[in-house]
Amino acid sequence: MSLLKKTSLLCLPWFLAACSTLPQQQDKQAPAKTQAPKSVVKPQPAPVDSAAEAPAAVISLLDRADRQEDNQEHAAAIASLERAIRIAPRYPESYYRLAELHYKQGSDNLARTFAQKSISLGAEGMLRRQAEALLERILF
User: Fold this and answer.
1) 85 falls within a domain
2) Are the C-beta atoms of residues 95 and 121 closer than 8 Å to each other?
3) CA 31 to each of CA 24, 28, 110, 127, 129: distance values in angstroms, whole numbers, following the listed order
4) Per the domain annotation, does 103 fall within a domain?
5) What is the rounded CA–CA span in Å between residue 110 and residue 95?
6) Closest residue by Cα to residue 57 from 21, 95, 25, 83
7) How far is it, in rounded angstroms, from Cα 81 to Cα 68?
8) Total-model pTM
9) What is the extent of the structural domain holding 108?
């Protein structure tokens, strides 16, 4: 056996002993330390009537639908908007844009349904006014 192997075999136990930790003995007279139980915070569900935030994928799909509509690719734009709805079903803008597209194609019943869904999901501000205006155009 070579000198290097013999040296490493002799030093190995000391090395392993140095790396190990010794168990700590608790003082019998000292009271055992107890940890206070951690309080569990339960997440609160979002209110039903609040509008959801759009993930980046939904924003990307809405932009794609705009480009497709500009290129007169209405079926592809509808497919993009429907995909955005599948990703974030509580995001009201997707429903409004789908309603607007159906209105432009003459599908008043679908346009009314999607505009009402947009409002029911908590559309606020300009989006709500646009959805209400679309409903008025459909009804009158």
Assistant:
1) yes
2) yes
3) 15, 8, 72, 64, 68
4) yes
5) 10
6) 83
7) 11
8) 0.62
9) 56-139
All residues at 6 or more sequence positions from 94 whose CB lies less than 8 Å from its CB, including other chains: 54, 58, 61, 62, 81, 84, 85, 88
Q: Are 83 and 61 in contact (CB under 8 A)?
A: yes
Q: Which CATH number covers residue 93?
A: 1.25.40.10
Nearest to 98 by CA among 139, 57, 69: 69
Q: Are 131 and 99 in contact (CB under 8 A)?
A: yes
40 lies in some domain: no
Tokens 């056996």, located at residue: 1
Residue 98 lies in a domain: yes
- Extract the tokens encoding 21: 């930790």
Domain tally for the chain?
1
pLDDT confidence of residue 140: 80
Q: Which residues of the chain have pLDDT under 70?
A: 1, 4-5, 8-52
22-57 in b/e form (b: 16+ CB < 10 A) is eeeeeeeeeeeeeeeeeeeeeeeeeeeeebeebeee
Report which residue type is found at 108.
Answer: D
CB of 77 closer than 8 Å to CB of 68: yes
